[in-house]
Fold:
Amino acid sequence: MTEPPPWPATPPAHGSVVLREFAETDVSLALELGEDPYVPLIGSLPAHPTRQEAEDWVRRQQTRHAEGRGFPFVITVDGTAVGTIGLWLRKLSEGIGILGYSVSPAHRRRGVATDALKAITGFAWTVPGVERIELCIEPWNRSSLRAAEKAGYRRERLLPAHQEIGGVARDMLLYVSP
Structure:
């Protein structure tokens, strides 16, 4: 395994958002996100997780960087954990960084996702080898589409049956960073 790119010395931030590493205290955020009907379909967090499952999920996030998978961050506003965002490096050999994010239902529609995208995008451009940043969003997810566009991302194309979500191959809209 090659050495992963270094963790940022200064936490990425934009507007009211600061991105930080996962901590044991983020179990409550995992429990909250696990109650959302969509979030467990798009990642490794189980739906309606037990405390143990939430703790295990947080521990997995804490190992992702050392494994070379990417940079998982907790989105915070005034020190409160409100969501997650990650820069994933599975296509770094092609020069591509991939973003994914989720915001707790209680903190949506406040510009958090837009600020988090701006924060991680600024950081992503500093990661050696990243020449393009991609983000895939389901066409029905208007809030996420708006957040990406407000963060400066532009829609590139529709990717038919691109990603399996909840056991179904779903169309995704590919967005790219400016």
Remarks:
- The longest helix spans residues 51-64.
- Residues 13-133 form a domain with the Aminopeptidase fold (CATH 3.40.630.30).
- DSSP finds four helices and eight strands in the chain.
- The beta strands are 13-14, 17-20, 70-77, 80-88, 96-103, 132-137, 154-165, 168-176.
